[in-house]
Amino acid sequence: MKKLILFALIGMFALTLSACGERDTRIHVGANIYTYGDNFMNGVVRPELERYAEERDIRLDIVDSENDQGKLNDQVDTFIDRGVDVLAINLVDPAAARSIIEKAKAADIPLILFNKEATEAGVMDIYDKVWYVGTDSAEAGIIQGEMMVADWLANNDWDLNGDGVLQYVLLKGEPGHPDAEARTLEAVKAFTDAGIQVEQLALQASNTWNTGEANDTVAAWLTSAFADRIELIISNNDGMAFGAIQAMKSANVDLPVYGVDALAQAISHIADGEMNGTVLNDGVNQARATLDLAINAAEGNSVTAGSPWIIRQDGTKAVRVPYVPVTKDNYQDFQ
Ligand code: BGC
Ligand code: CA
Questions:
Q1: DSSP string for residues in 87-155
Q2: CA of 5 to the centre of ligand 1 (A)
C-alpha cells in the first residue's frame, strides 16, 4: 500500500513537472542551420547558439534544413504555427530571402537572417523587423589575399616554373553566396593589385563548401595534364582546404594552401606546417549577435540595445563581425 502511494506521488510529481514544461514563458526562438553537413555552421555556429541560448535563458528550437530551401520554407511555417516569438534563419539559397521575409511579415514575427546574406536588391526593406548578422564578405578575401601575396613574395621557390606568374587553382564555395563570390574575387585581386601576374589553372565550386568534394576535386587536379604546373591552392573556406590537404597527402604533393574560418583543425594544420594560413570567421560572435538581436526584437527593444553590436547605416540592416588573419606567426593566439 505504502508503495502504491509512493508510485502515485511520483506520478503526480512527473505530471506537474511536464505541465510546467509546457508553460515555458521564456522567449522562444525558431532557428535553423542550412545544413548540418557544413563544418563551420555545424561545428562553430550551432554549438554557440545552443550554449548562448542557455546563458541568456531562452528557448531555442533549432533544425537542420539539409541544404533544401523548400524544406526550410516548411520549417518556417511550422515555427510560425507553433507561435515562436522570433525567427533566426540561415537561408539555404541567398536568393530566396523574399519568401521567408514575407512569411515573417505576414505573421508579424521579427526575423534575424544570419550567415547567408540576402542577394535580392532592396529585399531587406520590405519588412521593418528583419535584420542580418554576418560579416563583410569581401574582407575575408582581402585578408587571405594579403597573406598569400606576402608569402609569395617571401618565397621565390613557390614559383615552380620560374616564369614570374602565379599558377593557381581555386576551391570556391556556393556560387551566388556573397561570401564565396567576394572571397574568390578579392583573393585573386590582391595579387594583381600587387603587380603579380596570375594564371588560373582550374576553379571548382562546392554548394556546401564540402571537404569530401574538395578532396575529389584536388585529387583529380593532381592527376590532370596541368598537375605539375600548380603552385598554390586557394580555398574559400577551411573545410575545402582540409580536402585539398588529404588529396595532397595521398598524392605525395606539398603545395601551399590557404583557407578561411580558422576552425580548430586549421589551427593544428598551420602548427604542423600543412596549411599556410586562414582567416578567423568569428562564428562564436556571429551566434551571440544573432541571439542578442533576436531577444531584443522579441522584447520590442531596439535590436542592439545593451549589446556591443552595431547596425550598418547603409541600407543593409547588417551587423558585420570582423575577420582576423591567422598565420604561422600568430596561430597560437587562436588555439
Ligand atoms: C563560411 C563557410 C561556410 C558558409 C556557409 C561562410 O561564411 O566561411 O565555411 O560554409 O559560410 O554559408
Ligand atoms: Ca609560375
A1: EEE--SSGGGHHHHHHHHHHHT--EEEESS---STTGGGG-TTEEEEE--HHHHHHHHHHHHHHHHHH-
A2: 57
pLDDT band at 298; cut points 50, 70, 90: very high
Does residue 266 sit in helix, strand or coil?
Answer: helix
pLDDT greater than 90 at residue 110: yes
Nearest CA to ligand 1 atom 3: 40
- Write out residues with Cβ below 6 Å of ligand 1: 38, 40-41, 115-116, 173, 177, 179, 209, 237, 239, 260-261, 281
CB atoms within 10 A of CB 292: 23
Phi, psi torsion values for 27, nearest 5 degrees: -60, 135
Phi-psi region of 222 (alpha: psi -120 to 50; beta: other; left: phi over 0): alpha
Would the pLDDT of 9 be above 60?
no
Walk me through the domains of the chain, giving residue ranges and CATH numbers.
28-135+283-321 (3.40.50.2300), 138-281 (3.40.50.2300)
Ligand nearest to the CA of 196: 2
Q: What is the DSSP string of 209-250?
A: --HHHHHHHHHHHTTSTTGGG--EEEESSHHHHHHHHHHHHH
State residue 43's pLDDT score: 98
51: CB partners within 8 A, 6+ apart: none
Distance 175 CA to ligand 2 centre (A): 27
Among 32, 35, 39, 40, the mutation site with the greatest number of ligand 1 atoms within 8 A of its Cβ is 40
